[in-house]
Amino acid sequence: MHRNLILLLISLFLLSPASAEISIYWPGSGDNSISTADVLDITNGPDESVVFATSNGLSVFKDGLWTIYHPKAKDKRGYLEGIPLENYITCVEYDSENNLWLGYSDGIQIYDGYTIPVTLKPPQRTLISYSINDLQSLGDQMWVSTGDSGIYCYQNGEWKWFQPSEKTGLMANRITSMAVDYSTGTLVLASANQGQYILQSNDTINPYFQRINEPYIVNDMKEVRSSYFGGVYFFNKTDIVSYGKDGSVHILNIKDLSYSSDYITDLSSTSENKLIIGTNFGLYAWKNRVVTDSFSRKEIMNNQIKKVFVDAEGRLWFINKYFAGYYYQNEYIPTISLEIF
What we know:
By secondary structure, the chain is mainly β. It is built from two helices and 32 strands.
């Protein structure tokens, strides 16, 4: 072996101490920020982006940079050149083919990223109501909650209306929130004041909704969120209940988090089986019936949380009335050790 030979010995990955970061984005503070803190919906994009539906256009976060989309001028044919159709976007969702769906108070826009977006607005009569409450992708279906007229399912180029009636089983006019139980592939709905429903049959020929009658799930639980490990969470201002194939379980009351918190505003779940809960007095992580982390004014500057969202990269997003931000913790940072002889 030659003495003048330089050997590079690459060690095994070593584990460095955990690191965490909190990033804050103030609207109007510069080019690289969200357009407004008035966020109405958040979803993961297909390219590791995070997409925010706001009252001031579409804000997209990717690789640490923001891109803002506002309505563009119409071309000579009267078509909008891109997205969004309007600045006020009520909800946003990607379908199974990575088409971007945008819901508005008076229409829907579907965009494949390349061609002119498909726009549904009156006087087209595809939908009874064009006021879009929520969008939820399920396999090759897109479920659309519209005004006070029940929901629609779009599949293979066709629309099917589930009007509130005994025939469909959906006895609620206004569906406020939708989520998927990913362990069973089941759609779950929450209504404004007529209870919660589950899609019992999804054969696309005779789908049927059944009202959920379970302990702890009360009428004013108007919001539902998917759980990372299956099942869903219903919640109101004071309580969170999990629901799945084994029934319902009461998870917590607002006072289990903090006696300073008065009401729950939003929740999301993580791959670590934690619930991330937004309240009027801060942000909490909950697991195994205890608070594992909490963030107050000291850490996040303003603790009146409006929305929370855990993205595909594990960032914990929180929105208040002033700004958007995220908390990210990488428990193990791989490092490569090089030794030269």
